[in-house]
Amino acid sequence: MGRREYAGDMRWGWQCPRCDADVPVDSDPHSETFYWACPVDDCPSVGFGFSSRRRARIALREYREAYQNIYR
To answer: Which phi and psi (to 5°) does residue 57 adopt?
Structure first.
């Protein structure tokens, strides 16, 4: 991952790679890191331990791209 890698439009939510639901990125005050978790009850998608909100969004985007390429 490059230092200035594009994270997309930061104003809007991102979509879950498995179910396409809007996924918020939040901070964890206990560990002082950022995480994202799909809000749909039966969807297991989650990412945690990111040093910034931007890195969490980049990881979510990369996960989405990798997940979509599984069946190509």
So the answer is: -70, -40
Q: Phi and psi at residue 2, in whole multiples of 5°?
A: -75, 165
Q: Is 68 exposed, middle or buried (0-12, 13-18, 19+ CB in 10 A)?
A: exposed
Q: What is the DSSP letter of 62?
A: H
For residues 6 and 18, what is the distance between their CA atoms, to the nearest angstrom? Answer: 22
Phi (first) and psi of residue 7, to 5 degrees? -105, 0
Ramachandran category for residue 23: left, alpha or beta (phi over 0 → left; psi -120 to 50 → alpha): beta
Amino acid of residue 50: F
pLDDT tens per residue, range 11-59: 455 888 889 898 989 999 999 999 999 999 999 999 999 999 999 989 9
pTM: 0.72
